[in-house]
Amino acid sequence: MLTTRADALSKVPEITLAFWVTKILATTLGETGGDAVTMSMDLGYLVGTVIFSATFLIAAYFQVSAKSYHPTLYWATIIATTTVGTTMADFADRSLGMGYAGGSTLLLILLSGSFMVWYRAQGKISTSAISSPRTEMFYWVTIMFSQTLGTALGDWMADDAGFGYAGSAVLFGGMLLAIVAAYFWSQVSRTLLFWAAFIITRPLGAVVGDFLDKPVSKGGLELSRYSASVALLVAIAALVYLSTLNSKRAATVALDSDG
After folding, report:
1. Looking at residues 90-114, what average pLDDT do you find?
2. How many angstroms separate the CA atoms of 206 and 152, rounded?
3. Are 37 and 51 in contact (CB under 8 A)?
4. Are 225 and 8 in contact (CB under 8 A)?
5. 19/1 Cα distance (integer angstroms)
6. Residues near 53 by Cβ (< 8 Å), separated by ≥ 6?
């Protein structure tokens, strides 16, 4: 899905089906992990946001400072963006009283502004060659805003719009399938489709995460947030490992063929 091979200097992974599955798992982990800290540990949204903001800044620093693509570091940074996105959205929507609609609107404005500044500064927002520190900073700020927006959208659809967790998962899953269809059967910009898919996978993961850990009375399965988070982390690690192994094998075959 949306396959574009990054060039040799790029510090982002190849955009394959494995990438999108890992992304959805990471966003689901962001929801269960964020809720584990703010709710299960009872630290609250503000403290959770401070903790995960610091985690994101540290991960982003090492990611931007790295000279090449490192799968573990990249996905750790993705997970950091989705956990901080969860707590930031919940803090804005609930603690500040903005509500899901207000929080989603504000975050949509911030995300649009991030895209606009990135485009004006560099003339494109393509993710095919994220190699310079400046480009990567735009990339990660945009991702952080998209993850936060996705959390607010997921909560809005599941709670205020009345779709529930399962209904919202079907809704966002349908949107994702529409993007896939546009990729295969239209000439819509691949960059636009990538970012549309990236944004939509976040609320999909958010409602799946809520479905796993919210009380049965509210339509969830009421699973342990800690157990769900560990299971998701293990699944992500396994996918990243297998994807990295497959990429190395493909590179070896290509070298042998050239030889």
Report:
1. 89
2. 9
3. yes
4. no
5. 9
6. 84, 88
Residue type, 10: S
DSSP helix/strand/coil, 7: coil
Query: Which of helix, strand or coil describes residue 98?
Result: coil
Whether residue 106 is predicted with pLDDT greater than 70 in this model: the reply is: yes
Query: Tokens at residue 136, please?
Result: 């990567």
Place of tokens 């947030």: 225
3-state secondary structure of 127: coil
153: number of Cβ within 10 Å: 26
Query: Which pLDDT belongs to residue 254?
Result: 54
What lies within 8 Å, CB to CB, of 39 at 6+ separation is 225
> Alpha carbon of 2 to those of 14, 19, 25, 52, 182: distances in Å?
10, 10, 18, 30, 10
pLDDT tens per residue, range 148-189: 998 889 889 988 888 998 899 999 999 999 999 999 999 999
Q: Cα 216 from chain centroid? A: 26
Q: Is the pLDDT of residue 114 over 80?
A: yes
- For residues 195 and 5, the model is more confident at 195
